[in-house]
Amino acid sequence: MLHFFAKIAFLLTLPLALHCSHLQAQSPLLWTARWSPDGSHIAVGGTDGILRIYDGETFELLRRDTLLTDDEAIMRMDWHPQENLLAIGTTGPHVFLIDFDTYSKTAIPDQVTGARAIGWNHDGKLLAVGDGEGIVWIWNRKLKLVQKIAKGDTYSYVALDWHPHKNQLSLLSNRIRTYNARGKLLGLTQHRAEQVLMLCIDWHPEGKFFALGDYGDVDVPHPPVLQFWDEKAEDVQEFWESKAEYRNLRWSADGQFLATASDALRIWNSEGELLHTGPSPARLWGIDWSPDGSYLVTSSMEGHITIWNKEAKLIRELKR
Q: What's the pLDDT score for residue 220?
């Protein structure tokens, strides 16, 4: 157990060290890439603190916004489901909101300790953050703090996702924790027999199950696993195709396909059948589908931003 938490502590401090080395190489580690629900924009961020915005149709670079200081990184982002509004989690004490109709920026200044887990609920009325100290923060759309869930027997939160139809929140730390919006703990589950760091979660759009990916542990070794969990977190399917950790994963809007970012781009169907594999020279970190499911965007450990088609064929690498 101590080995597990020591490894989590190391991994959670890794972005800053990587940031310094990638600055020297002029190649930032790009943690996150998200396509807006209306298809108009692609947002990409990482260890250099620069928010890169691309046209969602032409893929041209529209702007580069130095959002953070040199010692902070953009970790995860989530678009509002109805508004042209992007929530940005960082390694610093603020969560940022950017309104793309006016390109105005708002910082939520509550004492968040790194926002690696961030997401809007299904109707966009609530925004949740799981922070580096293991605290959950929930704001309403007017940015009033409506719930703060105290730290439990957890070290840190690394990812979260809301149920697609109700105010139920799934968070990843040493175990899967499920809360309602009032902060009541609904479930607590260990995802595998070994203590292995989980990295990403995404509910299927129908709300009957979610996909989860973990880091694995090369020292033991425990290979990284992709899992499908049912709504009650009781029945699980497991898939072992990846040769590296699952950094991020996303369902297509229609729920037909799951895309995973690891040593390659992999596309699966909702039954867990691997359909397509797109080789990548660098490990992939960020991933998202275009709203119509025709394309994907990925970002990588070595600063690549790439557009793929739905058969995992490389279409274009974007200017950084």
A: 79
- C-alpha–C-alpha distance, residues 127 and 117, integer Å: 11
Tokens representing 101 are 């109709």
**Average pLDDT of every residue of the chain:** 91
Q: How confident is the model at residue 232 (pLDDT cuts 50, 70, 90)?
A: confident
Q: How far apart are CA 122 and CA 235, in angstroms?
A: 24
In whole angstroms, what separates CA 235 from the centre of its chain?
Answer: 23
Structure tokens at 34: 């998200």
Those residues whose C-beta lies under 8 Å from the C-beta of residue 18, and which sit 6 or more positions away, are 29, 47
pLDDT of residue 109: 76
Distance CA 121, CA 117 (A): 13
Sheet of strand 314-317: strand arrangement: 284-289, 295-300, 305-309, 314-317
pTM of the model as a whole = 0.91
